[in-house]
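Archive transcription. Copying these from loose printouts into the bound notebook so they stop getting lost. Printout 1 of 2:
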Amino acid sequence: MNRSYLVLALFAVGCDYGGDFLIAKDTIDDVWILTDPNGERIVPADISTPDDLRASTIYAEVGAPQTTGYGGVTFDFLGTGSNICIWVDPELAYWNQSVSPRPSAGADKWAYPDNVFDDGDLDLLAGQSVYYTGSPGENVGDFVVQYKDSLGNNVPISLANCPNGESAIKAGVTVSAGRGTPEFCDVDTTDLGIGYTVLLRTWSTPLDDDRLGFGVIISNGTCAHLQTVAGASTPAQDECVIQGEAITPDGKDYGPFYGWDELNQAGRIWDGSVDFEAAFCDPAVTMKKFCKGEAEDMLNAGQTCEWQEAPNSKDRCYCGDPNDSPVGGVL
């Protein structure tokens, strides 16, 4: 046998390229379909008060992808002839730590490290159902179609309504994307009676349990209206349009739960997560103050924070380890 072939043969026998170790085990469904309580399409809600907002939020979890492809949740609605807002908030809230030795008043809010192990991310895509390339409940697609030009070249064209210029790329508009960050999008003047599909595509799941909790709202009107109802006047306060999306794991039960009250009555909201989000959203409260208070409470209870493994109600912390803060030095 040629020496190079022998080396390749030994290499192939001695190494495992399955990559199974990269796939989360014993988790919940990674691709599934969300419906209303009767198993029908989601109907956009009319929201005019904070109580309406809480009652109209749908909560659930999605597992880590079980293949090398994307996972995610899809749901359908019918166009109303008017504007529709889609708003999704993944677990939990993330910030970049400010390490300035002389932080400004605004930067001081973020001087404590975040717990990066409890955050996840969902990408929001939506468009007319006829253009969706995935098989709901089976595999995840997108809204990209192939157009053949006059030279015979296949040209990919996105026919998605979301993301769009208002939600992602318009000058002067804050991008609604990022780890643990709400994503939202206005579908302008939907076609009456036409089916639309919304995809909440899993980008990352929390490292502590591989289960991503989220809350989603689909409402009549604009997303700016939802922000007004929730009192969200700054980008950070977008986190408080939906609260309670940090859902406690419970075997294979991943919801959905229709409204804050149903989720709360089921005892599925992590203790302390709502206070954490409220501190995150409040410009007058620094995360350093909240996090030091959390650390003192844990110390007084004789507990230590669990960051990397699946936490329980006694050892869950929402802030990170201050020992991970970078320090000054020389190269």
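Printout 2 of 2:
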Amino acid sequence: MKKPTVGQMLFSLNVGNAARNRDQVLTPVTVTKVGRKYFYAATHRGREIKYELGTWVESTNYCANSILYLTKQAWLDVKEKNELTQKIKEYFGPYGGSHKLTLIKLQQIDEIILNDESRVKANFGTS
């Protein structure tokens, strides 16, 4: 992740215990300080929260209450990816769902997976 700059607006999402039994809400925050390992972002109420530079996750000894995103669209992309992954898992179920698909569709899915694995191997130089 890129290093944020002082004054930059980011978006905080409540996670972990802060999201338990309530909706996840994206809230704008402003970067107030940037160091070598951590940076701080303030909510509209002025409360500063410490985040790790490498992950943009709240720095705490316990369960993190928030994670930051560069844009609203970045969060929407993650959310859609999670929803699609869950939908695919539910479709196949614990015992597989291949009986629901034709051979051609299964071959197309296999091709998509193989292309993705090849791309990952090419990027990391593994075989």
